[in-house]
Amino acid sequence: MNITVCAKQIPDPANETSYDNGIIVRPEEQVLDDTDRYGIEVALQLKEKFDAEVTIISMGPAGTMKGLQQALQMGADKALYVDDDSLKGANSLMTANVLSELAKTTNADIVIFGTESTDGYSGTVPQQVSRFLNLDCISYVKAIEIGDDVSLTRQTSEGSEKVKMPQNCVISVTAGGVEPRYPNFKDIMAAKSKPIEKVELSTLNITTEQNLEFMSIEALENSKNGEKITDEGEAFQIIVDKLKELKVI
Amino acid sequence: MKTLILGEILNETLSSGTLEIIKKAQDENLDFQVITIGSGDAPNIGSESFKQTYIKRSSESLQFGNVTDLITKIVNDEGINLILGSSTYLCRDLISFISVDLNSSPVSNVIDFEINGDAVSTINSINGGESLYKSKIASNHSLLLVRPKSFEPADVELNDNFETIDVENSDVAIFDIYKEEKTGPQLEDSKVVISAGRGMVDKENLVIVEELASKLNAAIGGTRAIVDAGWMPYSQQVGQTGKTVKPDVYIACGISGATQHQVGMKDSKFIIAINKDEEAPIFQLADLGIVGDTLSVIPKINQNL
Fold first, then answer.
1. What was the ipTM of the complex prediction?
2. pTM for this predicted structure
3. Which residue from A7, A125, A14 is spatially nearest to A70, judged by alpha carbons?
């Protein structure tokens, strides 16, 4: 079984995102998006049961490749990436187009994602990839049970529904759906010798175009200058009084 | 502009997200129709003032491929240029699939949009609502995912004036459906919301938030950090990738206020924040900020209510 996991290198989310002409500024050193750890974890659990090969695919400025290393440290076998200046500011459809083509080169049976990246958060790429690949999409998976069959529980607006995982499909995994593993020292060392390969964009069949034109970013004044009181043991009373004033109680 | 609104049913009627988009479409005088996707017999979702089509899924299989084929065909047959859906699980899926068919990238997290002749421009909120990001769509089809609560819901009288289309089953069988018990106030429409963050230290401590919530008849939310940590389900996440709430009172317990969280709650009418760190960004949004330990303040509130 070939399992392909899409992972994204993003600027450290602890820092505020900055933009240049509408495009996120990406430092040389980017980290693995935590969202992707859930998808990688699902892939690794499937690998343990079905003897699969797990390939990470990624698009974006490679930089120091710290994020890709982090994905390999968790236990993925290898990584492929596309890094091309013409993809700077790529919309979600173009991103999905590139990732679908990359997934094809891995002969993926199963393609796994997080639900949305922490920096772009469009939340549409997994579904778009499934449509490009003409595969069923099992989105918002919040639980997985691996036996002889694999059952996936999807989050829906009313609750959840459980389906049997098809032989070929795209899956997106919600945060908290599984418990991502932490690599130990041995894993970290082992990752250093795993292959990371660059794929040239020109070898992929790209049929999409940029259709979103950046216009402007306008800063808003959000600060409210509300009351700020340091608790010396009695602050609860201020809240209780306020709740009464607001007629909550 | 010929417009399609993707609708959903929640609590036996059109969802509030759907009604919000209908309101915007009415205000902009758009030539719109609604396609609502659901399973089972639909309640009254039709109207005298717009065309409504009900795509009836079965509860036996996932039929996204077939539903998408149906919608794409209608878009092409009827020359629809603008497709709108609320940022929900279902509409995110459908608009993503359709975007591939129409070869036009969708815009997510839209909080407002403008139509000038044939041109559609969208406004997104970025950096936790500190800035607005405007862009223009340069393709024949514009696909927008609109954040819930961006507009007031339309006040329309609903009736049984709609057509129903059945969908063929797919190979992906659904073998279990679980309806979440919707007891107590729901995040999206509760007048009071209490949210918990990392400052709660341990999952066990959420009991004090639950106690306060039950005393105030409030819904409970959480930050991405604690959802990621498995303290709460994804469905209770407030923020950029979670729900947007606009309650009368929002109580942030041990939440530092990362921009990703702010975007989901900053428009609450009155914000109370309790946090140990007096520099926490949440205090910039708070109407009432208490610099202190949530774990000591909340139990005292509970005892005094």
1. 0.93
2. 0.90
3. A7
Nearest Cα of chain B lies from the Cα of A124 at a distance, in angstroms, of: 5
| pLDDT over threshold 80, residue A221 | no
Alpha carbon A108 to chain centroid, angstroms: 18
Q: Nearest CA to A4 among A97, A85, A143, A106?
A: A106
- Res B184: pLDDT: 74
- d(CA B108, CA A118) in angstroms, rounded, equals 13
Choose the mutation target among A212, A213, A225, A230 for the interface with B, i.e. most B CBs under 10 Å.
Answer: A212
| CA angle centred on B290, ends B288 and B294, rounded to 5° | 125
Whether B211 and chain A come into contact, CB under 8 Å, resolves to no
Test B100 with A249 for CB contact under 8 angstroms: no
CA atoms within 13 A on the CB side of A234: 0
DSSP string, A133-149: HT-EEEEEEEEEEESSS
Q: What are phi and psi of A243, to 5 degrees?
A: -65, -35
HSE-CB of B43 using CA atoms within 13 angstroms: 11
Kindly list the residues from chain B whose CB atom is less than 8 angstroms away from the CB atom of residue A140.
89, 234
Which residues in B lie closer than 8 A to residue A169 (C-beta atoms)?
A: 172
Assess contact for A55 and A46: CB atoms under 8 A.
no
Report the b/e string of A67-76 with b at 16+ CB within 10 A: bbbbbbbbbb
Q: Which two tokens stand for residue A217?
A: 């970013």
Nearest chain B residue (CA) to A211: B138
Over 70: is that where the pLDDT of A222 sits? no
Q: Which residues pair with B10 in a beta bridge?
A: B13
Of residues B262 and A54, which shows the higher confidence score? A54
Shortest distance between the Cα of A193 and any Cα of chain B, in A, equals: 30
Look at A11-15, A58-62, A122-126 and tell me which has the smallest mean pLDDT: A11-15
The answer to whether B290 contacts A124, with C-beta atoms less than 8 Å apart, is no
Q: What would the pLDDT profile of B160-169 be if each residue is shown by its tens digit?
A: 999 999 999 9
pLDDT digits (tens, 9 = 90+) for A173-219: 998 788 899 999 999 999 999 999 999 999 999 999 999 999 999 98
